[in-house]
Specification:
Largest sheet: none
Radius of gyration: 20 Å
Strand content: under 5%
Mean pLDDT: 82
Oligomer: single chain
Shape: flat
Distance between the termini: 36 Å
Length: 83
């Protein structure tokens, strides 16, 4: 992240940037907001919504096992701790 960009913004430009970011985020994540709302979670992109949203999303995640050798360690098939 380029912090110098944000540090160089005036207060008015920073508020405008934030507003645009939140609008774009709401549009891009509309499906997530609607689905979370169906489950009683307020996914409004606020700091307070992070914990409940991530709690819900981590419950949906799962591991997908790979066949030996199908990884990105660079060690090569049979030469890493996973094979």
């Amino acid at each position: 992240m380029n912090l110098q960009f944000f540090e160089g913004l005036s207060e008015a430009d920073a508020k405008l940037y934030l507003e645009r970011f939140l609008v774009t985020g709401r549009e891009a994540l509309g499906w997530l907001t609607r689905e979370a709302s169906r489950r009683g979670i307020d996914a409004d992109l606020s700091v307070a919504s992070i914990t409940p949203v991530f709690g819900w999303l981590t419950g949906l995640a799962g591991a997908v096992p790979l066949e030996p050798g199908l990884h990105t360690s660079g060690a090569g098939p049979g030469k890493c701790e996973y094979c």
